[in-house]
Design goal:
The chain has 198 residues and is of the alpha+beta class. It has a single domain, classed as Nucleoside Triphosphate Pyrophosphohydrolase (Alpha-Beta Complex). It has helices at residues 3-12, 23-26, 80-92, 176-188; strands at residues 33-44, 47-55, 66-67, 70-72, 99-104, 108-109, 114-123, 136-143, 154-160, 163-170, 174-175. Strands 1, 2, 3, 4, 5, 6, 7 and 8 form an 8-stranded mixed beta sheet that branches. Strand 6 and strand 7 form a beta hairpin.
């Protein structure tokens, strides 16, 4: 999928259903913290690629997992977009001048008590990554097409926090909250829901 098709699908689709089963259990939770992530896409050789990171083993939450750059909302951040751009600069050295906002996906609650605001953006120019040694073990790109067809994704139903919700699994060892946000992006682009796993 190239940039033109992506933008057409993203803006013309009625959008995902906003699946967020933890919202009822966590809304108003005293420890709930706001965060934002950057779902960054960069066109290379005619196709879009997702920018992903692997968190270091020392991180207090989601250690070692594949994730989007992002983090907690700070007081100086006026919007979730500001958070996502700031965190991307701090984590991987992505300059704000190289990023153009496309839109956002529905907010998403995690078992680690975060309310995440996913920000979708195009990375318009190449950049030289500078990784935060504390937070990022590596950064890599994965073709967006690897995640779009339902047969490349699957989910299991898990009971947590008093409710059942789907845990998604995808190529490139992506699972959990990051996979759930990619699932929402795939639906926003008009692709079918991931089937149940084996």
């Amino acid at each position: 999928m190239d940039k033109t098709e992506f933008l057409t699908r993203f803006h013309l689709s009625p959008g995902p259903d906003g699946e967020d089963p933890l919202r009822p259990a966590l809304t108003g939770h005293p420890k709930l913290r706001d965060a934002a992530v950057l779902i960054g896409l960069q066109q290379m050789e005619g196709r879009l690629n997702l920018l992903l990171t692997e968190r270091t083993a020392e991180m207090p939450t989601h250690a070692g997992q594949i994730a989007f750059p992002g983090g907690k909302v700070d007081e100086e951040d006026a919007t979730p977009w500001d958070t996502a751009v700031r965190e991307s600069w701090e984590e991987i050295g992505l300059p704000a001048s190289h990023v153009t906002r496309i839109g956002a996906l529905p907010e998403f609650h995690t078992l680690s008590h975060f309310r995440v605001f996913p920000q979708v953006a195009l990375i318009t120019r190449p950049f030289t990554p500078v990784l935060s040694e504390r937070e990022v073990a590596r950064m890599f790109y994965a073709p967006l097409e690897d995640f779009l067809q339902p047969e490349r994704r699957w989910h299991l139903s898990v009971g947590r926090a008093g409710t059942d919700h789907s845990v998604y699994f995808m190529p490139h060892q992506v699972w959990g909250a990051t996979a759930a946000m990619i699932e929402q992006l795939a639906r926003q682009l008009g692709f079918g829901q991931a089937p149940p796993g084996p």
